[in-house]
Amino acid sequence: MNLFHIGSELRRFGTGKFPLATVFVLILIPLLFGGLFVWSYWDPASRVKDLPVALVNSDEGAKINGQDVNVGQNVVDTLIDSGRVEFEQVDPDAALKGVKDGTYYFAIEVPKDFSQAVATVQETGTPDRTTLTALFNNANGYLGAVMGNTIVSNVVKNIDSLLGSQVTARLLVGYSTVPDPAAPPENPSAAEGTWSIAEGIDRLDDGAHQLADGSEQLKDGVGQANDGVGALADGLKQLQGATDKLGDGAGEVADGVRQVQENAEQLAGKQKLLASALVDIDTGLREIGTPEAMKLADQTKGLIDAIKEGQDPESLEKLQLLAAGAAEVQRQLLDPQADYRGGLIKVQGGTDRLKNGTQQLFDASEQLTVGTRQLADGTTQLAEGTDRMVVAASMLSDGLVELGTDGSQLALQVAGGDADKPEQATSTNPGLPLSGMGLAPIFISMGLFVGATTTYMVFRPLQRRVIESGAAPFKVVMASFLPTVIIGLAQATVMYLVQHFALGLEAHRGLGLLAAMYLWSITAMAIAQGLNAIFGVALGRTLGMALMTLQMVSSGGLYPAETQPAPLRWFHTFDPMTYSVNLMRQMIFETDLSVDHRMWISLAVLVGILVLFLLGSTFAAARERQIKYQEFRPQVTV
């Protein structure tokens, strides 16, 4: 018997209408997942324009530049004219009723003070805070709410383009849900309290920014004072140097005065000696008494008088005072113990300490500036955080939220344009894929696995006739496996054609995607055959359905495996569908295979799983053959 002989298993479906129809249905069954699901989720964002949404304008208007205007109505008209969503302007009662009964997926209300908030821009430059309310109903579906959040973000973006970022920077979006009849009524004072907290935090934020500005001014002032003290210290050092030079000059003056004084004193002594000698001569001449002697005595007397006139005691006293004064000036200028020099040294030391102090004060003022800026940033973040606590219902006295005050509300902050800049995932591929394109790997994998499981509900995992013929166990496995492989390849081919031509899936590696689908289909057939052969048809089919569900949630095809519970994260590594999803992603999207090795890993793992389950089926075939042999040759006969 040829190892790869298909045998009669497939030929038994070749006669009659119903067997052929069965094969046709088996080929098309994977399209329920790989075709219908992908088509359904291919590009839902392009059909958001058909989503019914209620618009409520509660704006009471305001005077802007002396004219009565209703900015809220302008916003509503702009949104309706945009055609991006099926907006319908209704009153609050109709909006609330429509969200409750499912007529509208959600409702958006422009607050009554919206125009007034816009008017304050021109009056104060800063608009009042106001709240744009979005009302949802959990019964309308989770994804509807997710899409609604995106729509609300686009609404804020439209408001930003229409009115400017000054308005949207102070705009809150209040997200509310319809009332739960079983829930206790909310305490409105709590919501009012959150607004009080928010306003207080805003004032704190303003104060922190003022403090930061003041610290900047303080730093500048201290810097100027520090520069002035430095200049004073430098000037005192120059004064000290000049004083030293002046002291040296005063010493030279004192020395000169002392020299003059000594010379004057010596001259005065010599004058006294000369005068005394002349007096003796005058006395002697007068004792002689001759006319000539008397005449000579008179001349001597004149010399004595002249010498006496030349002697000036006051001049000597002045020279003494001058010498003493010069010495005192020198002492004051040079002696550290003197009042002047000692005071100058103290002033110099004080200015040095003052300079060090002002430098420390300047450094501290810089730290204060940094700290106050951090404080201002922190209070800004705190203000934004408290804005998230604010409940939209507490701001309005009528409209949607008033009608739903007994429900739970959650206010989210969109100040600073956060809502009109929704986060987007970045990709190494040129452009983000459509949602259907991104989900295609998991749905294709699920479809082909369902196709394999269903195929072995029609085909026998092991043919009794082949077992009884005495064929080798692996030949027994191939006799049932190869016909299902043909069915699996047909399933994968049809699914690929539908993906490519009907849905427009343009894979980066088109033939690679087809080959990946072939490999996964063959592997899924081996898994289905192995489960049915090892555990029996009933239990094997049940395990196959259970394994399909477990593979789907653990593969990472819908949500990243890291977001799953711990048991599913553990199974993710062993999940065959993990590697089929990774392999198909590598084929659909442009990846650098020299860096991203998941394609090679997936190929190796899938081939390994294929071989493993074929070996399991071979073991089951050998077991069945042993049982049949014992039935024909019983060890004990009766």
From TrEMBL:
It comes from the Bacteria. The chain crosses the membrane at residues 20-42, 438-459, 480-498, 510-531, 599-622. This is ABC-2 family transporter protein. Its main location: membrane. It holds the Pfam family ABC2_membrane_3. It is found in: Membrane. GO terms for molecular function: ABC-type transporter activity. Keywords: Membrane, Transmembrane, Transmembrane helix. Residues 22-159, 437-589 form the ABC-2 type transporter transmembrane domain. It is a multi-pass membrane protein. InterPro entries: ABC2_TM, Phage_infect_YhgE_C, Phage_infect_YhgE_N, T7SS_ABC-Transporter, xxxLxxG_rpt. The keyword Magnesium does not apply. GO terms for cellular component: membrane. It comes from Corynebacterium pseudopelargi.
